[in-house]
Amino acid sequence: MRGPVASRRAALQGALACGGVALLTGCAIPTVRSAGGRAALDPLAEGCRDLYLYGLAALEMARARERTMGPQPNVFRHVRAPASAASRRVTTPNNDTLYSSAWLDLRSGAVELDVPATGDRYFSIALLDMHSNNFHVGGLRRDGGRAHRIRLVPPDATPAAGEVRAPTWWVWAQGRTLFSSAQDLPAAHAVQDGLGVRARGIDGGAAPPSPPPMSPTTAPALTQLSAMSGLLDGIAPPARADGPFLARSRALGLSTSALVAADGALAAAAERGVDAARRDIRAVIDAAETVDGWIYSRPTIGDFGTDYLYRAAIAVWGLAALPPVEAVYVRAAGPGPSASFDGMRPHRLRFAPGALPPVGAFWSLSLYEVLPSGELYFFDNPLQRYAIGDRTPGLTRGADGSLEIHIAADDPGPALRANWLPCPRGPFSLVLRAYLPGPGFVSGRYRLPPVEPV
User: Fold this and answer.
1) What domains appear along the chain, each with residue ranges and CATH number?
2) pLDDT tens, position by position, 351-375
């Protein structure tokens, strides 16, 4: 049954990090809307708020490009080691897959991606436009593990048969390669090494200029809006569906040149508008509902359409989330602060016979300690076990075929140790990941059982 609406903003901040652990819920909205119950903004401040919500995903993508691209585009960079208790760079790390990342620059023409054969190993290569939409997700689901080449053409080109048109001049390619054990890492590395980029040459001309630096998140509202507007001007021709919004913005005089040369009145309106936008993002997150103690995502996650408010919220809490057809991420809503559970007492997650998560690839339940800051990380434990799932060796089943995961700080003994997911004695959090989820999981017909105290 559907549980009460609960305030989960701090919990979702951690769970939505690290490449899209996306856990918001609700109905998609067609335009930017303010949360109800607040005083109306004047038209100029409202326009600044809407511009911020519309462009925030692009700004966060540009910031990610600045942090992760390296000295040049069109080159894959790989994470070779699985996350562990020592992994403290990104909150809510993933212990299931290795990541590969490349920023693709199509300003000089088409770019081709070489994807190696992966067999039945889970692998995906997600291509995101600068609005953070997944416009193509290749890999096991789409390509059956076969070696293939993806030819991307620029947004102003007409794609030929078999080509993929990129909606924006820049594209973020993210590869996820499953590994099963330390012994399997060399084979997973071979998959990563098989990824390649073929970019068109400059033909003796000057290379396109490097992207300008982006304003930090602490910059004044007007500075961020100016940077955002300039970024949007050069992303690509706008999508037809964005036309009505952009026309309203232009009618208010919110062009890049006007924002750069803004007077005091516009600067003040920008502060009011951006502050309201941030409140609206928090309101979306605070409205997350729980279903049997779990928080689920919207069906538009990863391909947002004109749901600009939801797109902005995910850009803040879970940039580069995969769409539900590829992966579903669900966070358990514990009773403690930041939706945490109390490790001083044991808990259990019991799947009834025939009720395991329906997936075409794999599922796993990851456990994180919750820091005072709200960040989530793996913690050191005697088993060096950070997750349990359908690939965990030695799991024991009940006589009826049920599966019970034991979550406790203390070793439960030999009879239960195979199903033991160690937790700290303080607050902890649980995230379930399901890759290639079944139709019931995607539609909401399948729901996870609650996590129960023992």
Assistant:
1) 294-303+320-453 (2.60.120.600)
2) 999 999 999 999 999 999 998 877 8
